[in-house]
Specification:
Blueprint lengths: L1 H28 L6 H23 L5 H21 L5 H26 L8
Length: about 120
Amino acid sequence: MRKPFRQLSALLLIAALVATATLLGWDVCNHLHLTFVHQRAGALSFMLIGASYICLLVGLRRPWWEKFKGLLLGVGFLFWGCEQFLQPGPLATVMDSAVVMIFVLDLSLIILGRLQHADDDAV
């Protein structure tokens, strides 16, 4: 069952890279002016890379704690992309706060893990 998730992860990764290339190409063609396509391609890139990472984690054998931390990161990117499609309002604010909370929590867990291993100089 892990192989289909890994394949889906690769497909979503390619789609995220295509969306990002579209974003950059569009920006160059429009002299770096903020456009509708820029916003949508950026949001889609976030969503696709988050989904790709989640699929990759599901397809890997890792301890549940490592998967949990990775899933937080993937969900954070998904939410960040979804939020870009919302009109300003309470739902967008809740999603934005959730994204901030997820990213701060995820990096906090990484930092705390590194602090517990004081002899590890690699960051």
